[in-house]
Design goal:
Blueprint lengths: L12 E5 L2 E4 L4 H8 L9 E5 L5 H12 L6 H4 L2 H4 L11 H6 L7 H8 L7 E4 L10 H4 L2 E6 L2 H14 L8 H9 L8 H9 L7 E5 H6 L1 H11 L6 H10 L2 H9 L4 H4 L21 H14 L11
Parallel strand pairs: 3-4, 3-5, 5-6
Antiparallel strand pairs: 1-2
The structure holds adenosine-3'-5'-diphosphate.
The site of adenosine-3'-5'-diphosphate (A3P) has 19 residues, from α2, α8 and α14.
Length: 308
């Protein structure tokens, strides 16, 4: 008898490979061909994050550093330009078409076609290393990895499901159950973190934590700028901090171009921006289950472990 096929837990997601779930707004074929063969440039800055670990915030910091002499340009960007996830698009899946999301291009193609050589690109991804662009590991451009307490990532992802049109609203119980099965988008946090940990000490990689960025925003901007080879004055660092402050970004993003394409009318782009918010949602039993699973999976990776 043929083995019964496992079903994904949440709508608008699919198995990219056995056990590994992605949103349907990302096409398998595009990832396996266009993304995998993406031509990396020396001047690129890659950003690797597990979903909801602070991708937007860090991208905004990188953008502000890259454009410190023309910082108003940040205000002109559309939502999609702000977060050009390399694996996004093209959206031809029936669930996306039903939702009216029909013209998301392959972001890779857009980046190749619209950013001239010599101009710095910010390239975010949530993918595992083995399905990321091959040239990332041969050309070794500057790559920043941002880590965040997985419980806060999960709460943030739960709220994200209620906010964006390319995912489906669900209950917290459904989200938690999906996570425990490795069925939330981009799969298991521990698998992701351990896979990227292999590159943590490479000179082309900067590994930082969301929590440290929260504790020392300016110091983190300085670290990122230095890593990018940019020497900013104190005033310039303060300017980057100003335009990447949570409340500043939240206000700017309320009227950002392309917002209605991604967000539901009641959707929230910048939610709370705090650490430890998970405590308000996890039940005691969920917390115990999560901790057990996390500690088992992260065994041997003590330097990466969160004190959950
Ligand atoms: P919360 O949902 O916990 O508030 P990503 O960009 O990877 O999707 O991550 C989203 C998380 O980063 C959200 O967390 C969001 O509020 C937070 N965030 C976005 N901009 C931020 C900022 N300037 N400062 C702190 N946190 C920020």
């Amino acid at each position: 008898m043929a083995e019964e096929q496992e079903q994904v837990s949440l709508k608008k997601t699919y198995f990219f490979s056995p056990g590994y779930v992605l949103p349907v707004i990302m096409e398998k074929n595009n990832i396996e061909t266009v993304v995998k063969n993406f031509e990396v440039r020396d001047e690129d800055v890659f950003l690797v994050t597990f979903p909801k670990a602070g991708t937007n915030w860090t991208l905004e910091i990188i953008d502000a550093i890259q454009n410190i002499d023309n910082i108003d340009i940040l205000k002109e960007r559309s939502l999609m330009e702000k977060v050009p996830l390399i694996e996004l698009g093209p959206s031809t899946h029936p669930e996306m078409v039903e939702e009216g999301i029909t013209d998301v291009p392959s972001i890779c193609q857009v980046m190749l076609e619209s950013v001239p050589e010599g101009s710095p690109r910010r390239i975010p991804t949530h993918l595992l290393p083995d399905i990321s662009p091959t040239q990332l590991f041969t050309k070794k451009p500057k790559t920043i990895v941002v880590d965040r307490n997985p419980k806060d990532c999960l709460i943030s992802l739960f709220n994200w499901h209620q906010s964006v049109r390319f995912l489906d609203p669900c209950t917290w119980e459904e989200m938690f159950a999906a996570y425990m099965k490795g069925h939330t988008i981009y799969g298991d946090y521990c698998v992701f973190t351990k896979a990227w940990a292999k590159y943590k000490n490479e000179p082309w990689v900067l590994w930082i934590r969301y929590e440290d960025m929260k504790k020392d925003h300016k110091g983190s901007v300085r670290r990122i700028a230095e890593f990018m080879g940019k020497s900013l004055t104190e005033e310039q660092l303060d300017e980057v901090v100003r335009v990447t402050h949570f409340l500043y970004m939240k206000k700017a993003n309320e009227t950002i171009k392309g917002r209605e394409f991604i967000l539901r009318p009641e959707g929230v782009w910048q939610r709370k921006g705090v650490s430890g918010g998970w405590k308000n949602t996890f039940t005691v039993a969920q917390n115990e289950m999560f901790d057990k699973d996390y500690h088992e999976k992260m065994e041997g990776y003590e330097d990466l472990k969160y004190d959950l």
